[in-house]
């Protein structure tokens, strides 16, 4: 027997229509590339997203055609989120920090037909446009009078001139909810990037999941600052879940330094912020130097790479900001787990609560997970045994666009996505990442977690960033060393740092050496690039060898 309820498809256009009707005057505030602050409402955003949809119709773009963005976090980018996907096209958000060759490769692979870019990226577009024959309309995300002259880019128009004459009325198509809505390429630290193609259904379900109280707890009382870029897995879905809840949105534009972020947080009464640890490190340094405090910020979601426990302590103890440690992947839209306590933990002493919150958290409804050994056998959930982490759920990848399905089947024939992460799960379902599979250090048949070693090193007050890698060893296979970038003006010796590990981890896990570097190389999404670090340390020999 079928249920007798209304059959409504889950569409991205419904999110912005909801915000328009019930939170029409809630604000969207953006720091623009020009440096000034722009301010308008969901009502304005909806009208302009419709103008954009009409402009795309004007180009005779079919449903499913790809429209690319190369842009910072800002209101025009958010209009693209709704105008492009809502009208049945696929929004392809490109990471501008990738190598130009890789960007050209991605544009061709996606067969983008329209590419809209912030004027900051003009030199990049000038370098790649001739290699992107599928693009038939280049759009600069700027006012008509700011359109670069003599750019050499054929047919370049300004976004404002392009949408200006268009009607603010548009009937969003009633698509099948499994229609593709947007796409994002993995950062591809090895080989060519792979394309993840999200659907309306996966994006809306993810937006619901992300807003839940045990996840980001978003509401119409929040002012949300997505520092995580809109080209990095849809800013973790925030442009969608903000509309779903009617939250005020504050976009930082290109200004991601500590001072700019702090000033924006204070000026706009930001209550909730989201970003990777490296960004927060800059913010905290700025605040510590100036003896500053937050007046409204009460929680921040940190993910993308492991959040050092010392950062959680500083946010909570010095600034009264709750850290929500989250884990996810491009292939997961991205949210998989997030750390919040359960009722039974409330009476625990603070140190024990902190231990739980340092982990990557527990699954959000919609995500299931397992850890398995190399033969695919399930490992116990005892918080100690580690295994390869597999996940499944309605917002998790099945097959790469123009690629293969990486899923592995269980005995019931259900497909699980292999994350490439190694993790433990405790009896309460809290997951802790110990490593990327390729970063695991194997010493004498035992595994050493590079993240554990990095977390300890970053607990030292002189350490700005630490990266632990394995080095070949004739007896033990590999031994860990830790590369350390010191905080400006801070001093610590190799011996002091090695002594700092005493009592914090098993003796055999303590690194054999500390190598001081000017900076730890970071990839396009702000994560440590261990491959690059290994290249930099070519020729390095462990002490005593
Ligand atoms: P890519 O896989 O291309 O680097 P993603 O943004 O999809 O880009 O990265 C996902 C990976 O980032 C995860 O598989 C995991 O290794 C790492 N990661 C994400 N969040 C965390 C976290 N909170 N702690 C540790 N690692 C994390």
Automatic annotation (TrEMBL):
Membership in a protein family: Belongs to the ATP-dependent AMP-binding enzyme family.
Protein's name according to its UniProt entry: Long-chain fatty acid--CoA ligase
Annotated ranges, domain AMP-dependent synthetase/ligase: 19-401
Cell membrane among keywords: no
Entry's transmembrane regions: none
InterPro entries: AMP-bd_C, AMP-bd_C_sf, AMP-binding_CS, AMP-dep_synth/lig_dom, ANL_N_sf
Keywords: Fatty acid metabolism, Ligase, Lipid metabolism
One Gene Ontology molecular-function label: ligase activity
Domain AMP-binding enzyme C-terminal, chain residue ranges per copy: 453-527
Listed NCBIfam families: PRK06018.1, PRK06187.1, PRK07008.1
One of the GO BP terms on file: fatty acid metabolic process
Pfam families referenced in this protein's UniProt entry, alphabetically: AMP-binding, AMP-binding_C
Keyword Ligase: yes
UniProt cross-references to CDD domains, sorted A to Z: ttLC_FACS_AlkK_like (cd12119)
Annotated Gene3D superfamilies: 3.30.300.30, N-terminal domain of ligase-like (3.40.50.12780)
């Amino acid at each position: 027997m079928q249920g007798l309820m209304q059959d409504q498809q889950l569409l991205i256009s419904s999110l912005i229509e909801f915000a328009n009707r019930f939170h029409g005057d809630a604000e969207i505030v953006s720091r623009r590339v020009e440096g000034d602050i722009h301010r308008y409402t969901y009502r304005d955003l909806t009208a302009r997203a419709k103008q954009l949809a009409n402009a795309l119709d004007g180009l005779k773009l079919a449903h499913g055609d790809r429209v690319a963005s190369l842009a910072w976090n800002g209101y025009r980018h958010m209009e693209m989120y709704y105008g492009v996907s809502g009208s049945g096209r696929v929004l392809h958000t490109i990471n501008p920090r990738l190598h130009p060759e890789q960007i050209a490769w991605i544009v061709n692979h996606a067969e983008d037909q329209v590419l809209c870019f912030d004027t900051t990226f003009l030199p990049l577009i000038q370098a790649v446009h001739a290699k992107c024959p599928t693009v038939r309309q280049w759009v600069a995300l700027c006012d008509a009078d700011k359109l670069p002259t003599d750019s050499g880019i054929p047919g370049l128009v300004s976004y404002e001139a392009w949408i200006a004459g268009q009607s603010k009325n548009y009937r969003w198509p009633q698509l099948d909810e499994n229609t593709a809505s947007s796409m994002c390429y993995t950062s591809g630290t090895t080989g060519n990037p792979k394309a993840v193609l999200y659907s309306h259904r996966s994006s809306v379900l993810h937006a619901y999941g992300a807003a839940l109280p045990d996840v980001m707890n978003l509401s119409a009382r929040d002012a949300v600052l997505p520092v995580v870029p809109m080209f990095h897995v849809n800013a973790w879905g925030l442009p969608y879940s903000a509309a779903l809840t009617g939250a005020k949105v504050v976009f930082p534009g290109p200004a991601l330094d500590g001072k700019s972020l702090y000033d924006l947080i204070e000026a706009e009464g930001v209550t909730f912020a989201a970003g990777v640890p490296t960004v927060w490190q800059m913010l905290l340094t700025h605040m510590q130097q100036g003896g500053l405090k937050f007046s409204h910020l009460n929680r921040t979601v940190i993910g993308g790479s492991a959040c050092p426990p010392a950062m959680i302590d500083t946010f909570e103890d010095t600034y009264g900001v709750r850290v929500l440690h989250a884990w996810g992947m491009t292939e997961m839209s991205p949210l998989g787990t997030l750390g919040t306590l359960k009722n039974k933990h409330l009476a625990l002493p603070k140190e024990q609560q902190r231990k739980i919150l340092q982990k990557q958290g527990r699954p959000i409804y919609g995500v299931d997970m397992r850890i398995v050994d190399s033969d695919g056998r399930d490992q116990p959930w005892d918080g100690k045994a580690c295994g390869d982490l597999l996940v499944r759920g309605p917002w998790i990848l099945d097959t790469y666009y123009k690629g293969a399905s990486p899923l592995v089947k269980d005995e019931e024939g259900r497909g699980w996505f292999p994350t490439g992460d190694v993790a433990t799960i405790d009896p309460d379902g809290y997951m802790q990442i110990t490593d990327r599979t390729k970063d695991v250090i194997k010493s004498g048949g035992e595994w050493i977690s590079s993240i554990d070693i990095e977390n300890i090193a970053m607990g030292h007050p002189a350490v700005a960033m630490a990266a632990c890698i394995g080095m070949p060893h004739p007896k033990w296979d590999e031994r860990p060393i830790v590369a350390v970038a010191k905080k400006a003006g801070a001093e610590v010796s190799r011996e002091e740092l090695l002594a700092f590990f005493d009592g914090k981890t098993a003796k055999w896990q303590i690194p054999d050496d500390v190598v001081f570097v000017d900076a730890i190389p970071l990839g396009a999404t702000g994560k440590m690039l261990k491959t690059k670090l290994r290249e930099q340390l070519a020729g390095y020999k462990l002490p005593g060898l």
